[in-house]
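Predict both folds.
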Amino acid sequence: MKQLGELEDLAIQAKTKSMKKLFFILLGAWLISSCTNVKKVQIIQDALSSIDSSSLKKVPEIDSLAIVKEIVDHFNTEKITFTTMNAKIKVDYESEKNADTYIANMSIQKDSAIYITVRGAMGVIGLKAFIKRDSVTLFYPLTKKIDKRPLQSLVDIVRIPFSFATIQDLVVGNPIYMDNAKLLSFKKTEERLQASLLGSLFKTLVILDAEHTKVLQLKLDDVDIHEHRTCNISYNNHVKVGNMTFPLNREISIEGRSTLIIHMEFKEFGFNEPLKYTFAIPRPGKRR
């Protein structure tokens, strides 16, 4: 019996470690996958016949600046506005070492708090994350372990500068990291528009639908060549949220020192309704 108990403890520790790692991976993936949500670039014209990105038509510097300003101004006036958000997300991930499926329930109080509950097999809660403007607290119900740290520590882990507002914007679908983006090139067909943007962190290849209202695919490459990270993201099953669109399905493939594939499916989501997935972190030493 003693040996059986030890094996169960080891299994719980391994599951807890896996969920903790997944939380940080998903946070980084969300940051990358939300780097742009380009909606309208209707002033871009003159289609090219070749689909090869190496032959994209070069845009004069003055036109490039004007187009980027138009994009940023458009986003600033048509962001998804809200006071609260609730979402239920199915997350499938596959790495070189393992694969698993989780359900993440999330509630957001704008500019204040983000609650995330992660459930594994059989609906067992393996992790709760409580994010505030300056800190993040992780609670592992199976082991009763509590890990509280400054929000800056997550920045150090994923190596991407962000704030609470950045996390909030990327979850609800608002654009981030677009302020200083520069249009390098573009091409247009009857079915889609493809544009290459250069920002301070990433070089982004974005593919939009013919109406320029939906992001269909992104390719993100680190500006820092020493990072050797590439991320391919596809967006599907868009729904309208006011004047914006929200992709219910996202397929993310990250390649760097290792390969990771993540599929996110929003089973439920809603804005401006009572928070559904809040919780209290127990005090250290207090059993719940």
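Second protein follows, with its predicted structure tokens after the sequence.
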Amino acid sequence: MLKLKKLFALLLGFAGVFVLSGCSPQDRSGTFYDTFVKPMDIALSKIHEYTGSWGWSIVIITLIIRLLVLPFMLNNYKIQNKARKGQELARPELEVIQAKQKAAREKEARAISNEEKMQARSELMEIQKEQFAIMKKYGANPMSLGGCLPLFIPLPFLTALFYTLSNPLYSAGIIDSTFLGIFNLGTRSYTLPVIAFIVYAIQTRLSMKMMPQVTQPGQEQMQQQMKLMQWLSPVMITIFSFWVAGAVAVYYIVGGLFLIFQTYVGHALYPPYVPEKQKKQTFDPNKVTLVSNKKKRK
């Protein structure tokens, strides 16, 4: 339940950023346009003066933006890797907590009087507090502010580039241009979205393989749902690419290829934590003293 709430909070945060960022690519007024979109549009036109190709200009500016935000993304990998290690270290204690939660829920189900039900619910709340304390102790919460913030910082710049390609003004020459003599950048493409899907499918599979998520006791079903949601990104990008100009699809493809490179770099710098097999982690369940038990002793 905690992971689900955190996921919804993150998705709502992204939605909020898009809403506050300027609402529509067609809007050429407002703070977001003047601060991010207009400079991005002008920068793209300046790059075209040197390359002479709108397609390669899109490739270059996409790579520049991705390189600028790379440190933030690598920092997020670092935080996520630390959280995965914390989750592995916390697993024995969390398994004890899960057993306590199961016993408390069974006690609540057997309760007859309101007083017994309230007592069982109070015990469950105390156990949940203990669970939060254990995760905090090992730094096992990847959805903390420190873990989410690096994802929000690059978003205005990436959104500005998307808006520029969707409705160019200073770089309006994109509308009548082609890339590699094959792909029309100003109109809808049916080939580029397929390429985008292949690129993002590879990136998603690679990310799941090289940066696996730790499954906490009792949250196996939630973990499977999270994996399925990861595959929504390639599908949504592909569907969206069919509705926009080819220039946006090129932006997605270049961004996806860079994400593959970013995944390899992140894995090399912060490889997933692997518990030592030769040293079995022993744990005494009696050492986990719940807040509820402390109150009973008093």
